[in-house]
Amino acid sequence: xxxxxxxxxxxxxxxxxxxxxxxxxxxxxxxxxxxxxxxxxxxxxxxxxxxxxxxxxxxxxxxxxxxxxxxxxxxxxxxxxxxxxxxxxxxxxxxxxxxxxxxxxxxxxxxxxxxxxxxxxxxxxxxxxxxxxxxxxxxxxxxxxxxxxxxxxxxxxxxxxxxxxxxxxxxxxxxxxxxxxxxxxxxxxxxxxxxxxxxxxxxxxxxxxxxxxxxxxxxxxxxxxxxxxxxxxxxxxxxxxxxxxxxxxxxxxxxxxxxxxxxxxxxxxxxxxxxxxxxxxxxxxxxxxxxxxxxxxxxxxxxxxxxxxxxxxxxxxxxxxxxxxxxxxxxxxxxxxxxxxxxxxxxxxxxxxxxxxxxxxxxxxxxxxxxxxxxxxxxxxxxxxxxxxxxxxxxxxxxxxxxxxxxxxxxxxxxxxxxxxxxxxxxxxxxxxxxxxxxxxx
Length: 442
Description:
globular, 442 residues, mainly alpha, single chain
């Protein structure tokens, strides 16, 4: 039993470190891309690009149908065969892509001025074309996540932002402020990534056992799990982006462009919990019948995530002024106070991500959905009330308060399910460090 536990922890640590390295690379690439965009296009262009990309991102999240979570859960738990998953994802990705393009067309044609004030329609039309590529990429990347092939998974995640950055750096000296070119680069980088994913899936199909496949049965099981799982990520995504949307509605794209810098920087603190959650969810799904192992594993991970995220948060707070002024430019210094206000919220929500993964792996993703819905209502109403009075700082304050609400509710349900106390998930132990050293030495 002890050997099995150590094996689980070693698996977690090795793959988490590998995934963390990959996500840190993605984060650094994202920051460099954000700096380049901010320098070339200024606050106004930065705001327009951020708002335009909300359209395909939101459609992809709405029409994901919970397939990303379903793929991970069904494949890692052994409930579905990989060939069934591939065929099922093909069918659903086609249906979802057509639906999303129709919805996007109607939104731009009839509601663009209300939903996206200050954003040129041609930019929105161009951004809509990215939606199906983003959607399909998400569907099939999660298959490798479910198989726990983290080397391939991390390479796929790294590929798109790297191609996008190289494109930005190539065209930056030639730029005249045309955002269509920037969105075109996003489309090209996503399409190239899709080709890579398709090639990997073809190889995966050939490697898999040749057994009778039942894609409709997979779709039925995925829909049953995904429906409960998808509303949570949708509302979570809205919680992360609603402040930007409402801020743009009450102010203008230049103010939004400045605020987006704060969000871009502070969200990099999610790299720690994100990397570990990527490993944790399929691992916990494998341990579906071993509640004690789940409790111990999640508590250990929570303690480590809190410690590392606090260290990262303190570093960001100390160097934020210099990062913004000397990398993004003095015209973006208005993002400093919102960034500082956002930091506490991001620290606590990072922990909530770990607990939410544990809850979902117990087959109860609907709990995360309910919590996200409550938080979204709080967040939306708060932003509508506070942003007209406090602007960017109001958006940041409301977001942090909503993160605190979400984290408190998530811990309450996690505690009810597991019995793990607050001290067991918050306070690091000396044995944690001894375990880490022992595992890493093997």
